[in-house]
Automatic annotation (TrEMBL):
One Gene Ontology biological process: polyketide metabolic process
Domain of life: Bacteria
UniProt-listed PANTHER family: ESTER CYCLASE, POLYKETIDE CYCLASE SNOAL-LIKE DOMAIN
Protein's UniProt name: Nuclear transport factor 2 family protein
Length: 152
């Protein structure tokens, strides 16, 4: 099996079991300890390190459990694997002081995974999660808009 195909298989496991099922053992098995993650779950700065990523992601997954999950596209070139998926989650628990609503929320994301020696060393997440962002607006507005510089 080529390295690209191995990376795709590892990416599938990470997305299907680590992300979709919030399985932290999969995070431990697949992620480099010094991973860097760029995601809206940490809008002020990239997440540095596996322990920080696990804490931030597991908190999100606990509040927004996934009910349905499908990988729409996956492909790899050299040390990169790109995964596009659609998930359906439910806002079950309060999250960053926003009260849970039990709303069913669609999530559409693209993860660009970079591999080194069979481990994921970087994850860049791009998402079109407008319902989630709308619900979380009271928290996100300061984290996102508060960081924008005004040039007058």
């Amino acid at each position: 099996m080529t390295e690209e195909l191995q990376n795709i298989e590892v990416a599938k496991r990470f997305i299907n079991q680590g992300i979709a099922k919030a399985n932290m053992k999969v995070f431990d098995d697949i992620l480099d300890p010094n991973i860097t993650v760029t995601t809206g779950l940490s809008p002020a700065a990239s997440i540095q390190g596996i322990e920080n990523y696990k804490q931030i992601f597991s908190s999100f997954a606990d509040a927004w459990p996934v009910k349905h999950f499908v990988i729409d596209d996956i492909f790899g070139v050299n040390d990169k694997v790109v995964v596009r998926f659609t998930a359906t989650s439910v806002f079950k628990k309060d999250y960053y002081d926003v009260k849970a609503t039990n709303q069913i929320v669609p999530l559409k994301e693209v993860h660009i995974l970079t591999f080194r020696n069979g481990k994921i060393v970087e994850n860049i997440v791009s998402a079109t999660n407008f319902p989630f962002e709308y619900i979380m607006y009271p928290v996100l507005k300061d984290a996102v808009i508060g960081n924008l510089e005004i040039d007058i």
